[in-house]
Amino acid sequence: LDTLTPRNLVTNQTARRDPSPPVVATKEQTSTSARSCNVCLGTAFADIDEQRSHFRSDWHRYNVKIRLKGGDPVSESVFAQLVEGLEDSLSGSASEDETADESDAVDTLVTRIKRSALSDIPEEGTPKVPASAIIWFHSPPATQIGIYRMLFPLETPAAAYLSELKEMQTPIEGGRKWAMFMVAGGHFAGAIVRVSRAAEEEVPVPVNARKKPPKPKPETIVMKHKTFHRYTTRRKQGGSQSINDNSKGAAISAGAMLRRYGEQALRDDIRGLLQDWAEDIRECERIWIRASVSNRRIFLDYDGCVINKGDDRLRTFPFPTRRPVSLSVLHVLTQSELSRCLLELTQVKISHYTEEDLREQDEAFLASLPKPKPQPTPVSTTDIAKPKPQRLTKEEEIYREKWSRLLDMITKGRLEPLKSFWEREAESIGGVNVVIPEWIGDRRVSLLQVAAQSGHEEIVRWLLYDLRADPTIPVSAGWTKAEDAGGESDTSDVPSSRRTAYDLARSRAVRDVLRRCAADH
């Protein structure tokens, strides 16, 4: 240990991002640009594809969720560093057999921030090389030793790794103990193991070299172990029954009832075992748990739990694991997945590279890192003065209301109310041949065109014979053939400059009324 030095990656060649220009913020941090994001600190985009890609990104989803919880959004560089720290602490804990229960990185980040406020967010622009699950130490001339980062206390600074490693090598009374638990797919395996000899078991160096020293006891000893299995997961379907019930509703089949009973029994068995091992668990230096998000509640989230939710001894396995199924009929721990994980954690990784080889590896690794994306150009979020709509007078409001009622009655074919309305308001409207006002937004020009296009022959007859409406008023030049689609008119090929109410008629009955009127006059 005296010759070891922590090995750091060559970071002086790391590509640095240009410092992003300061974001011009306003009181509301919103943007009036169509190609921008109102949540992610007013970023702007070159085209609609870039904007859609941003809305699907984890960065945008994180800022939306954190804003909904009352937090402040972060920049892209800060978010990248948060994700890197999350991957460092969760690397390898996912299972190859179940992934449906796992939350994604965004949900995990939001949950962690809600649990404990992050007071030391890295500064923007600080280059950071992705952290490895293994910490490497160098021993001259060409030996490297790797140890999993999870073995060290949480939040250990890089400068203290070597001193912590020496502390872990120091024998203590009773030896160092770990608790290891794995649960997935109804299978459970748990063990209490001793990973170092007790101080009283250390073999002294014999004075007489000719005398053979006694054989030392093994450092790793399984003190207790237990496995169970319950039927909780449907074959070839995956996912627990409770998650399926929450997403699709409670199933009423016999198999579903058995799986619900299996989940409850497995939970009771595990908690009962934890209570039996409570004294040993309190003496453990590390507690390793491999479980999905929902299954972690079995260990932590209940009244009288043996393991507290915020216990700093809690760890996840920093490498991929399989289901905790024993390969032996007798459930011998040495053949189980749990023993493989124990061996992986306690076995030191050793490599032999020269300084030149290490430098070449570092340079190749740094070259393989993705190049930093150009930062979206922040836009000013100052409010643009919009023209206020002109306020109508009382007389103008009454006049517009009359027009709206008139066109509504013609469109719906309400002849009798229309006659009564016309007797009262004909003079204020302006006569039967008055041009429909532009503010209505209707491309039809006259009341007769509205009635003909709506297909009400009684109203067309009343307008022609009783009110003497002019059928020769041309249709607006903006009227297109597409607006006649769906009708029965056979005169759609007439040029728009010569089209009249007859060309807008969508039924034969309306055209017959117009033809008879033309013959009578």
Automatic annotation (TrEMBL):
Residues 1-14 have a biased composition (Polar residues). Keywords: ANK repeat, Coiled coil, Cytoplasm, Endonuclease, Hydrolase, Nuclease, Repeat. GO terms for molecular function: endonuclease activity; hydrolase activity. It is found in: Cytoplasm. It comes from the Eukaryota. Residues 1-31, 367-388, 479-500 are annotated as: Disordered. Its main location: cytoplasm. InterPro entries: Ankyrin_rpt-contain_sf, ANKZ1/VMS1, VLRF1/Vms1. PANTHER family: ANKYRIN REPEAT AND ZINC FINGER DOMAIN-CONTAINING PROTEIN 1 (PTHR16036), TRNA ENDONUCLEASE ANKZF1 (PTHR16036:SF2). The VLRF1 domain mediates binding to the 60S ribosomal subunit. This is VLRF1 domain-containing protein.
